[in-house]
């Protein structure tokens, strides 16, 4: 008897972001479609070779994507919104759905479960139909190009539909609105319809001789009622009907299964995948309910979400526990969550990162080696590698920082001033009209900006030359904002690469990779910082640039900071201390910065928290604890400011409706929030909840290159007016403008300012407190 191994979700971007470069070159017209596809294929071949070298028993295929794996399913089953049907070329239509066109708004984009990956939300209209069998194409490609048998991997039908939205007629109206498919009466019939398409796909795979398929079903770890579980099992009966020659695995991850016994016993599949890394709940379930003898267990025993090296002794002990309930010949060792949450390789970090820190790290390629080593230890008696991981962790402790956060949970943290009174004073001091306009923070990071930053890093220009260049960019941005007649300005963030990286580089306790890129969405990649030690701020981080920008204008310029919860959630954080303690450490460091900005005369300070919702635990029973400390961490950054200092925050691309009362509890004076891609859906939350703080509902989508017309933005703004006090409404884009070009940014902002002017003309420019 011997255990088998597999992995899934290996990064798609290439070791040096080759995927990004090829696709963006195609979008710019620099290379042809054929050239782009050739370069993309080279990326896929390289990643497949790396995976094959891990000596896996089940080699994955169909886990590569040009943009998004959920969008891949939509185009496979013909879920193409009507507004894109007129685009004949399949590839152009695919990219249009993700990015929008001049005439069509892009599909909504939101966070994938509790991660920083964004997927394209399926819009369900019309019938499901198999128009492109992607798993079959990928299987045949791998066999032809690399001569290997593979296990195609695909998002499962249940998860796909749980992440979708459907059109439903509004009560008492002829208008249609989009609602979550899981909340619709159509859910069950749609699921069974989609199941039939998946069955057709499997029949074609079976005819080709495919031996195994993996359906990723992370939605099974959500809080599901019995009706949903019964629908799931019935759907899989449809999916697996007539499939006798394929092993079908359903893999779950990011959390434990609540309906463990029913799912593992009744789901008509060959194997179930469980996450044993996230917590010990699946192991406890295994002990309590056992595991069916007719199924294999795909045991997720190494992490796909964090970069900390696998502790072999710890994992081998876990596997021994699992073997008490599942025979060794039915165990398939795997990563717990997809590896695309990790950078590709540690290779380029050698000589760059601290050697002690390197001893603690493992990226995607190293995970392949770890799964290979585990297999050799168990099956061939290979000696367990010697590890002293805790000794290395202990080197990075700062007792003074740890002491500073010891008693925070025992104190109420909040601003002492009543919101209504302080907001009136702020508006009067700032001299703002009703419906004030602003942007979220960043302005276009042009090729010139990126080139100068690269030159500075390489030492080709001096610090003084670089600083003067940044000043020129700030001056230009202030002049453009003056011309646009915006009301509250930003300095443009030209000195910043990434909103988390920038602050991490200026705080102790953070490390930064040279090439540790991770896909955030499409071709957008980020380099998550690694929080390896206790966090503190040795000196001011933003004062110089913000104060310079403020010196150029009479209009208020916002101080721009990234909030503690976002810095935490968008970093690879330590696992040896509570997550909330790290948030508090970051918050105290940011509070020092806020007070320095205030002393320097900055009257508006924005503390962005786009990842606030993202960190919400998937299980409802665990959410209150997280929300309590997340709100406290945000408040900790600004609870000591003066009454007249206006605090903003920003959130984007998440389902906020269910936590609106916690967002309110953050007590920011103004929150800016995404509303464009979701067609203003967030506004429904304010129809049910009396939100009486300042709010800027994002009136246009900055992730698309299109310039939306005034009428389109005005529709969202007018809807906001119906549910929010006119004295509290701000007008802004839905996110920062870093990824856009000036050629589209300026006309879009002109239209946005025009929306504010129309509203002032209609409802009055002066506040009527």
Automatic annotation (TrEMBL):
Residue numbers annotated as active site: 703 (proton donor)
Span of the signal peptide: none
Cofactor mode of binding and number, as noted: Binds 1 zinc ion per subunit. Binds 2 Zn(2+) ions per subunit.
EC number: 2.1.1.14
InterPro entries in the cross-refs: Cbl-indep_Met_Synth_N, Cobalamin-indep_Met_synthase, Met_Synth_C/arc, UROD/MetE-like_sf
Enzyme class: transferase
Keyword vocabulary terms for this entry: Amino-acid biosynthesis, Metal-binding, Methionine biosynthesis, Methyltransferase, Repeat, Transferase, Zinc
Keyword Metal-binding carried by entry: yes
Top-rank taxon, per record: Bacteria
Pathway the protein acts in: Amino-acid biosynthesis; L-methionine biosynthesis via de novo pathway; L-methionine from L-homocysteine (MetE route): step 1/1
Protein's recorded name: 5-methyltetrahydropteroyltriglutamate--homocysteine methyltransferase
Organism expressing this protein natively: Hydrogenothermus marinus
């Amino acid at each position: 008897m011997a255990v088998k191994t597999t992995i899934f979700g290996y990064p798609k971007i290439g070791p040096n972001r080759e995927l990004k470069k090829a696709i963006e070159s195609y979008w710019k017209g620099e290379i042809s479609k054929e050239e782009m596809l050739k370069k993309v294929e080279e990326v896929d071949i390289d990643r497949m070779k790396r995976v094959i070298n891990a000596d896996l028993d089940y080699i994955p295929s169909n886990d590569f994507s040009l943009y998004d794996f959920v969008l891949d399913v939509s185009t496979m089953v013909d879920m193409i919104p009507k507004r894109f049907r007129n685009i004949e070329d399949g590839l152009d239509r695919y990219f249009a759905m993700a990015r929008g066109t001049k005439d069509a708004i892009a599909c909504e984009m939101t966070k994938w479960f509790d991660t920083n990956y964004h997927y394209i939300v399926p819009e369900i209209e019309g019938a499901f139909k198999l128009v492109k069998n992607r798993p079959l194409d990928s299987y045949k490609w791998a066999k032809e190009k690399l001569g290997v048998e593979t296990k195609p991997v695909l998002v499962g039908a249940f998860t796909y539909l749980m992440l979708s939205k459907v059109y439903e007629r509004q009560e008492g109206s002829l208008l249609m609105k989009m609602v979550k498919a899981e909340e619709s009466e159509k859910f069950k019939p749609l699921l069974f319809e989609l199941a039939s398409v998946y069955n057709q796909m499997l029949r074609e795979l079976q005819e080709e001789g495919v031996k195994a398929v993996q359906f990723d079903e992370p939605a099974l770890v959500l809080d599901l009622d019995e009706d949903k579980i019964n629908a799931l099992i019935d759907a899989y009966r449809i999916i697996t009907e007539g499939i006798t020659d394929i092993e079908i695995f359903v893999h779950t991850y990011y959390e434990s299964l609540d309906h463990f016994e029913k799912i593992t016993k009744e789901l008509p599949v060959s194997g179930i995948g469980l996450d044993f890394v996230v917590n010990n709940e699946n192991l406890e379930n295994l002990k309590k309910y056992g595991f069916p003898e007719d199924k294999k267990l795909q045991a997720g025993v190494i992490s796909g979400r964090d970069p900390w090296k696998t502790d072999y002794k710890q994992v081998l002990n876990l596997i021994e526990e699992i073997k008490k309930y599942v025979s060794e010949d039915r165990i398939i060792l795997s990563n717990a969550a997809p590896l695309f949450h990790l950078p590709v390789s540690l290779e380029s970090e050698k000589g760059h990162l601290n050697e002690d820190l390197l001893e603690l790290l493992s990226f995607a390629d190293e995970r392949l080696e770890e799964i290979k080593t585990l297999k050799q230890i168990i099956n061939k008696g290979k000696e367990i590698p010697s590890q002293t991981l805790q000794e290395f962790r202990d080197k990075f402790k700062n007792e003074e920082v740890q002491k500073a956060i010891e008693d925070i949970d025992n104190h109420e943290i909040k601003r002492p001033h009543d919101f209504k009174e302080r907001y009136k004073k702020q508006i009067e001091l700032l001299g703002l009209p009703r419906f004030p306009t602003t942007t979220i923070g960043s302005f276009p990071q042009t090729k010139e900006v990126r080139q100068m930053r690269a030159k500075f890093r390489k030492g080709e220009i001096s610090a003084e030359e670089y600083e003067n260049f940044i000043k020129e960019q700030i001056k230009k941005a202030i002049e453009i904002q003056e011309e646009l007649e915006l009301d509250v300005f930003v300095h443009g963030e030209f000195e910043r690469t990434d909103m988390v990286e920038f602050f991490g580089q200026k705080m102790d306790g953070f490390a930064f990779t040279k090439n540790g890129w991770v896909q955030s969405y499409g071709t957008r990649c980020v380099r998550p910082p690694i929080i390896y030690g206790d966090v503190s701020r040795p000196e001011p981080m933003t004062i110089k640039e913000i104060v310079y920008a403020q010196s150029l204008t009479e209009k208020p310029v916002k101080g721009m900071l990234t909030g503690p919860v976002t810095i935490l959630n968008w970093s690879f954080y330590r696992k040896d201390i509570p997550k909330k303690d790290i948030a508090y450490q970051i918050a105290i460091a940011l509070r020092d910065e806020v007070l320095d900005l205030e002393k320097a005369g900055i009257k508006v300070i924005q503390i962005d928290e786009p990842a606030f919702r993202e960190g919400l635990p998937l299980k409802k029973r665990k959410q209150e604890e997280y929300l309590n400390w997340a709100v406290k961490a945000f408040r900790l950054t600004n609870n000591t400011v003066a009454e007249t200092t206006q605090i903003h925050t920003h959130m984007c691309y998440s389902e906020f409706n269910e936590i609106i009362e916690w967002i309110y509890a953050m007590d920011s004076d103004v929150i800016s929030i995404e509303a464009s891609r979701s067609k203003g859906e967030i506004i429904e939350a304010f129809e049910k909840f009396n939100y009486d703080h300042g709010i800027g509902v994002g009136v246009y989508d900055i992730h698309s290159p299109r310039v939306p017309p005034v009428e389109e933005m005005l529709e969202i703004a007018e809807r906001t007016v119906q549910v929010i006090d006119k004295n509290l409404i701000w007008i802004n884009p839905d996110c920062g403008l870093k990824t856009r070009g000036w050629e589209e940014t300026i006309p879009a902002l002109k239209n946005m300012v025009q929306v504010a002017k129309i509203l002032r003309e209609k409802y009055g420019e002066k506040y009527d407190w």
